[in-house]
């Protein structure tokens, strides 16, 4: 689906505030509510807008450490990838895992109470038979909000 500048304004507005009413959205992008609703419905049906979510922080004062980990596997057969992916999918601390091309096989994002908890998790993964050859750890020192960066400039 090709998005025109008005569609992009709708997407940007929803990225800033996914809970805004359809009337407020129409006002924000300078469309009639009916025209705005039709564009929104079309983008949802086409899969451009796949859903609406809430960012939830159940324990805002709880200590936590975010870690990015690059993973390389020992072997690169389909069964090796499947075994690794099935194992990491069971770990609640792993909040994202992306397969990548190039020098590494996966990039994972983990959230743990502290570095010690992270290291115990990695040690457990290394001791399991999921084929990790090497890993590189990057501790996140600050998360940079990108909402405005993802918003598109006015047309």
UniProtKB/TrEMBL annotation:
PANTHER family: LEUCINE-RESPONSIVE REGULATORY PROTEIN, TRANSCRIPTIONAL REGULATOR AZLB. It comes from Bosea rubneri. This is Lrp/AsnC family transcriptional regulator. It comes from the Bacteria. Keywords: DNA-binding, Transcription, Transcription regulation. Transmembrane segments: none annotated. InterPro entries: ArsR-like_HTH (IPR011991), AsnC-type_HTH_dom (IPR000485), Dimeric_a/b-barrel (IPR011008), Tscrpt_reg_AsnC-like (IPR019888), Tscrpt_reg_AsnC/Lrp_C (IPR019887), WH-like_DNA-bd_sf (IPR036388), WH_DNA-bd_sf (IPR036390). The keyword Cytoplasm does not apply. It holds the Pfam family HTH_24. Gene3D superfamilies: 3.30.70.920, Winged helix-like DNA-binding domain superfamily/Winged helix DNA-binding domain. Residues 3-64 form the HTH asnC-type domain.
């Amino acid at each position: 689906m090709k998005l025109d500048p008005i569609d992009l304004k709708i997407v940007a507005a929803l990225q800033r505030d996914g809970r805004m009413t359809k009337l407020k959205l129409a006002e924000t992008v300078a469309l009639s509510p009916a025209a705005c609703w039709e564009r929104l419905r079309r983008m949802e049906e086409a899969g451009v807008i796949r859903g609406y979510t809430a960012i939830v922080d159940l324990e805002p004062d709880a200590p936590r450490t975010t870690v990015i980990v690059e993973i390389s596997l020992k072997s690169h057969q389909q069964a090796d990838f499947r075994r690794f992916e099935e194992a990491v999918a069971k770990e609640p601390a792993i909040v994202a895992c992306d397969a990548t091309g190039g020098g590494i096989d996966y990039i994972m994002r983990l959230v743990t109470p502290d570095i010690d908890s992270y290291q115990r998790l990695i040690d457990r993964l290394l001791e399991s038979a999921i084929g990790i050859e090497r890993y590189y750890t990057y501790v996140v020192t600050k998360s940079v909000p990108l909402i405005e960066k993802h918003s598109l400039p006015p047309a």
